[in-house]
Amino acid sequence: MKFVHIADVHFDIPFTILETKDLAETRRLEQRNSFKKVIDYIKENSIPYLFICGDLYENEYIKLSTTDYINKLFETIPDTKIYIVPGNHDPYLKNSYYEKYNSWAKNVTIFKEKLEKIEDENVCIYGYGFEDFYMKRFEYENIELDKSKINILLTHGTIDGAREDEMLYNPLSLSILNNIGFDYIALGHIHKKIVDEGKNIVYPGSLISLGFDELGEHRNDSTEK
Asked: Which residue has better confidence, 221 or 15?
């Protein structure tokens, strides 16, 4: 199967590290352009699934105009099923645009904190996200997979975190995830692209660098299984 997996776009982040408002605005326009390139790639290659694994936008700063921009791009790929997992910067709050925006495209599914399983043709998609700015623990150990299908997990969190602060953002155990046996685990939260040795647990990294400490390549991760 073909899908595109992205995360950590952080639409409308203020970019306070930049010296002027003009530079910050230029960077936000670059965010939009990078996101549009992802949508154009999906359209040109007839990709059936788009996975967005958290921090699509900044809850504190996101504008209605930006949400409209995102959604209009979603509407240009009506044959692509879009699955969004809220992260710690865009949790599914009662006053969030995930909740109060009434015009989300018909091809968009937004997961909440409770694990949800969606069966579609030859794939089972499991997803859960943040409903607050922190998620200290989630019971995922007893997930039973349908081995006759491809099984994909979408979430936003930290793999084998050691620091106390890492335990606040959906801590996950690599060994437990491997024991469950997902074919692909689509993650967000780490802004650098990270792929485990088995190539089935992936942080795609942010689309563009969001700070001076985020060096190296930034691009969407397109995967075929």
From this structure: 15
What are the start-end ranges of the E strands in the chain?
2-6, 49-53, 81-85, 108-110, 116-120, 123-127, 150-154, 158-159, 171-172, 184-186, 194-195, 201-203, 221-224
> Domain range for residue 7?
2-224
Does the structure show a pLDDT above 80 at 152?
Answer: yes
Query: Which pLDDT band, with edges at 50, 70 and 90, does 103 fall under?
Result: very high
Q: Structure pTM?
A: 0.90
User: Which stretches does DSSP call E strand in 67-182?
Assistant: 81-85, 108-110, 116-120, 123-127, 150-154, 158-159, 171-172
Query: What total number of domains does the chain contain?
Result: 1
State the pLDDT confidence band at 217, using cuts at 50, 70 and 90: low
Locus of tokens 């073909």: 2
- DSSP letter at 221 equals E
